[in-house]
Amino acid sequence: MKPIVLKLARNDLKEIRERLAEFGNNPPSKFRRSFEAFCANITSMPLMYPQYELNSKYRKAVIEYEYIVFYQVDDSNSKSVAKIYRVLHGKRGISPLID
Prior knowledge:
It contains two helices and four strands. By secondary structure, the chain is an alpha+beta fold. It has a single domain, classed as YaeB-like fold, CATH 3.30.2310.20. The radius of gyration is 13 Å and the shape is globular. The two termini are 26 Å apart.
């Protein structure tokens, strides 16, 4: 099953695409491939990335251009489902943006 990208993360991805588009065609494509690879990884191995040290209910993965993907794994039923909450740049003040 594919990960579920929640509303805030969808908004983050839209902003990222718009920002990277200012740098030409390659940065948005490179970021998209990196995000797709991340999604494939958590589809097959949802626990492969470490827990976020400031809030252990999230896991985090660093992808292209220093973006960090915050997600949770819901394994309350027979299949694990990853829910992507935020995609933020690592240099941003992340802590207040992750509840």
